Amino acid sequence: MRNLGLETQRYYLSGDLTIIPFGLDQLEVSPETLKRILGYLLAYFRKRGDKFALYAVDSLTLLITGLQEKDTLAFFSDVRELRERSGLSFVFTIHPYSFSQDFMVRLRSMADVHLSLNIREVSGQILKTLQVLKVRGANKATGDVITFEVEPGFGIKVLPYTQVRV
To answer: What CATH number is associated with residue 91?
Structure first.
């Protein structure tokens, strides 16, 4: 985070930022274990809802790739219900190539916001793009792709469109 120009140590030390590693490499990962972990995660969200307003899970891919689609959809349905009831915000990262296109369409339909992060090489330059694919309740606007670089010590630098053109 420091390399991105975001100082988070103060928040971590004060308890306003919590990082919880899953440690899946140490577990025998069966579908039952994964369902149980998702249940614990949901219980944590419910229990700590008054402490934090935003929860981010990076990455949820390992926890849902071994599950049946109905179990994954049930988890997201529970998260959505919790969001609607409590006003909490959730950010989940998922590697889309780990799942079928049909399943990803179903997951995206449950989301309020869908962003896609890509890395591309253009004329020998590595570019990162963030594309806004969906924002529930928003009108479709132009300029929905942001190109940026990460500069250690400086942070995230948004590149002007003219600098990105080939």
So the answer is: 3.40.50.300
